[in-house]
Design brief:
Strand content: 15-25%
Number of helices: 15
Strand order of the largest sheet: 4-3-2-1-5-7-9
Number of domains: 2
Structural class: alpha/beta
Mean pLDDT: 95
Largest sheet: 7 strands, parallel
Helix content: 25-40%
Shape: globular
Distance between the termini: 73 Å
CATH topology of the largest domain: Glutaconate Coenzyme A-transferase
Length: 433
């Protein structure tokens, strides 16, 4: 590869181009900054990005004057561009994560340029996409020009998330560590939720688990389980701890037995170091990892996801706070559906009973404008620090009673009144039992 400066590399981007930036903890921020420095030269550059963990807001959102220069269409709004979208300067494209690669491949979202943050090449000239394979695999495949931060600090991960150096049109050599997203010790509330979920997960289960305090606490609570497997989007510190303990050995998986399967890695610098050339985990395009009909092939597949709020019928909002966009659908639907089809599979929605402001997250109805990410039919288990309930095959009044039982005690009376008003005698007769 011929190495150039970031400012030289972004000269490959022209007005009207559609540009994808790799995400997760591998956002090519140096190239984003160089592109922003060209703002006075450009117009109508379509920008696509996914779930991003960055050190600061994206450079192309630094000034509202950029609104006609960089047309931001996020596939998963994250802190780097969330304010830009909610201020009205950009927007988001609702999508299941596992179907995003198809949007690129069918040219429903045509791409001209893909910008990545990859590892140094191996002895055969292949660079790894490092900690972010997911939608990057398809974005590289479908773009006519590839710009890369070839990064000494990006780990080389095994699997199918690789690019040969000959396909990179402009390479910028750098040494920028992936964002260290170290999760602290779980709070007592997170620990309680984790214990409730872990108690429902059988030995031999194949896990999909997200990122954050509750998933971390759940993984801690699984330390006495046996023969767990991993088929997930995110490889995390919690999952790696279970691998080190021998709890997560992937021995009973039907798809890639003996090997953990993921689409990206996100967590602390310790887990990035542990994944470098680690043969026990392989990384794939999310069109594969998130395919419900692949997911279902593993027995006892268990999905653990989160919510912003849950209404009394079991509708799950996970992408917005009322009308205000917070994130996106991501892979929640992919795994909630796939695991529900698995033999012995289970799905879990985990959330604290109240927000940091003391508002109930179990609500009579979702806020106006809130998005339904998981439908009431798909919801199985819901857990808070007050317990865990199973909703599937329950009628609306039974669901309301169950959910009220795991709401914060100070919110239950108001929720009961709302349920009586909404469901009438069908709820009242349950309350009197």
């Amino acid at each position: 590869m011929k190495y150039v400066s970031a400012d030289e590399a972004v000269k490959l981007i022209n007005s009207g181009d559609a540009v994808f930036f790799q995400g997760d903890a591998a956002v090519p921020e140096l190239i984003q900054e160089a592109l922003a420095r060209r703002a006075h030269e450009l117009k109508d550059v379509q920008i696509y990005s996914g779930f991003n963990i960055t050190s600061k807001p994206a450079a192309f959102t630094a000034d509202p004057a950029y609104k006609d220069v960089f047309i931001v269409n996020s596939l998963f709004p994250a802190p780097d561009i969330r304010k830009w979208i909610n201020d009205g300067w950009g927007s988001m494209i609702p999508s299941f994560l596992g179907e995003v690669p198809g949007l690129f491949r069918r040219k429903e979202l045509p791409l001209d340029v893909t910008v990545i943050n990859c590892s140094l090449p191996d002895e055969n000239g292949y660079c790894s996409y490092g900690v972010a394979g997911d939608i990057t695999v398809s974005a590289v495949e479908c773009a006519s020009r590839i710009i890369a931060q070839v990064n000494k600090s990006v780990p080389y991960l095994y699997g199918e998330c690789l690019i040969h150096e000959s396909k990179i049109d402009a390479a910028v050599l750098c040494d920028v560590p992936c964002v260290d997203m170290k999760i602290g010790e779980p709070s007592p509330i997170e620990e309680a939720i984790g214990r409730y979920i872990a108690a429902e997960i059988p030995d031999g289960a194949c896990l999909q688990i997200g990122v954050g305090g509750i998933p971390n606490a759940t993984m801690n609570a699984l330390k006495d389980h046996k023969h767990l497997g991993l088929h997930t989007e995110a490889m995390t510190d919690g999952a790696y701890r279970l691998m080190e303990l021998g709890v997560l050995d992937n021995s009973l998986k039907k798809v890639h037995p003996g090997v953990g399967t993921a689409s990206f890695c996100i967590g602390s610098k310790d887990v990035y170091k542990a994944m470098h050339k680690n043969p026990s985990v392989r990384f794939y395009d999310c069109a594969y990892t998130n395919d419900p009909f692949i997911i279902r092939q593993n027995p006892k597949a268990c999905a653990i996801n989160s919510a912003i709020e849950v209404d009394l019928t079991g509708q799950i909002c996970a992408d917005s706070i009322g009308e205000r966009i917070y994130s996106s659908i991501g892979g929640q639907h992919d795994f909630m559906y796939g695991c529900s089809l698995s033999e012995g599979g289970k799905t879990f929605i985990a959330l604290q009973s109240r927000t940091n402001r003391g508002e109930s997250k179990i609500v009579p109805t979702l806020k106006v404008g809130a998005g339904v990410v998981t439908t009431r039919f798909q919801t199985q288990y819901v857990a808070t620090e007050w317990g865990i309930v199973y909703l599937r095959n329950k009628n609306l009044a039974q669901r309301a009673k169950a959910l009220i039982s795991i709401a914060h005690p100070d919110d239950r009376e108001a929720l009961e009144k709302a349920a009586c008003k909404r469901f009438g005698y069908s709820f009242l007769r349950l309350k009197e039992e």
